[in-house]
Specification:
The chain has helices spanning about 10-20, 45-50, 90-105, 145-150, 210-220, 265-280, 285-290, 290-310, 315-325, 325-335, 340-350, 350-360, 365-370, and strands at about 1-10, 25-30, 45, 60-65, 65-70, 75-80, 85-90, 105-110, 110-120, 120-125, 130-140, 155-170, 175-180, 190-195, 200-205, 225-240, 245, 245-250. It is α/β, with parallel strands linked by helices. The chain folds into three domains: about 1-65 and about 90-160 and about 235-295, FAD/NAD(P)-binding domain, CATH 3.50.50; about 160-235, D-Amino Acid Oxidase, Chain A, domain 2 (2-Layer Sandwich), CATH 3.30.9; about 300-370, no CATH class. Strands 1, 2, 8, 9, 10, 11, 17 and 18 form an eight-stranded mixed beta sheet that branches. Strands 6-5-13-14-15-12-16 form a seven-stranded mixed beta sheet, with helices on both faces. A three-stranded antiparallel beta sheet has the order 3-7-4. α8 runs antiparallel to α13 (about 365-370). The longest helix is centred in the last third of the chain and has 19 residues, at about 290-310. It is globular. The termini are far apart. The structure holds flavin-adenine dinucleotide. The site of flavin-adenine dinucleotide has 39 residues, from α1, β3, β9, β12 and β16. Flavin-adenine dinucleotide binds near residues 13, 39, 252 and 268. GO terms for molecular function: FAD binding; oxidoreductase activity, acting on the CH-CH group of donors, NAD or NADP as acceptor.
Length: about 375
Amino acid sequence: MRYDVLIIGGGPVGNYLANLLARDFRVAVVEKKGSFGGKACTGIIGAENYGRLGLPDEAVLNELRGAVFYSRIQSFEVERKSPQAYLVDRKALERWLAERAVERGVDYYMATTFLGFRNGRAVLQRLGERIEVEADFYVGADGVNSTVAKAMGAQTRAEFLSGYEVEVVGSFRRDFVEVWVNREVNPDFFLWVAPVNERIARVGTFGSIEALNRFLRMRMLRPTSVVEFKAGSVGFGTRKPWAKGNVALVGDAALQIKPTTAGGIVYGMLCAQALRRALLDGRLGDYERECAFVKKQVSFGLRFRRVFLGLGQDDIERVFEILGSQEAREIIESQADFDDHLKTAKAILRRPRLLARLIRVSPTIIRTLL
Ligand SMILES: Cc1cc2nc3c(=O)[nH]c(=O)nc-3n(C[C@H](O)[C@H](O)[C@H](O)COP(=O)(O)OP(=O)(O)OC[C@H]3O[C@@H](n4cnc5c(N)ncnc54)[C@H](O)[C@@H]3O)c2cc1C
């Protein structure tokens, strides 16, 4: 068996890339699971990019047009008229992408695990037997613990966090996501309540299972009303290089993940587009350069995370007072971009009054962010 491109990993990014490449290359996807979906993931994707990337309406479970931010002692709300993000069914999204890729001529090897490279070939374990597949080009889209990244000798400098998420039955405001920033409940990350509908929400956080349990109690959601539990991990940092010889990494495998929210689906897909252009031009060296937007966002997100980890809860309360002011809320409501947090931060910091108040909380906030 010989292919132009062998994609290792049939998650959202690998399947998306398979669709992009199908017209110009002979492509195969290797996926270790026997079916799609099942990964811990809230499935929130910015509405604008969802449309731009051509993702399917049928995977959308809910439309979110606002957020309520809670700290320990206060809250504020931002909203827009139109949906800013969608909450999607991961399995439906992955399966839709895979079905279209097959229709475009891509071969799928399900329940098949990539083990490593030998003599330029991919060694795969498939239903009890070992096979070798040869390709001109290999892409690791195999997630945060990428075997391909290890096999190509990529260097990782990152903070890895475990994520815990439940689906819980309760009563929720359907088009608003809740974001809780309370370091006494969880010192590692914010906590979220993302409604699937009025009756069910995905509630989660990164850090520890204890933090999620504390939050469920505080939010008065009964542990016995949980109908699904999932755990996964994310990596915030850098993994280099993204391409070496005839191997490239994309998606979580390359840590193309927003450290502000742990969202990785859109950034992975944007980089998949860049990888396609580089492959078509035969200039793999251009791949990382073409991902400049994602790199800038990841770098901003890492600095934002440093700021967050350096703030005590009292500082967070003061930041909440500033962000909850009418001036800040108006900026967020009119200019916030779901996938461009740098732009949102700049819009806020351009206002002299807000800037002066934030500097008073901590001068390092501004130095670190800009
Ligand atoms: C709790 C939690 C909540 C999240 N919420 C969001 C969110 O709301 N929005 C968002 O955008 N992102 C979210 N993320 C991040 C998101 O899940 C990832 O960014 C996204 O899944 C990346 O897609 P991917 O295709 O690169 O990798 P993955 O989804 O990890 O897919 C990799 C695929 O490769 C396969 N694979 C792995 N190893 C091998 C191997 N050796 N051989 C063959 N196949 C292999 C895996 O089975 C998997 O199917 C969340 C993550 C967590 C943990």
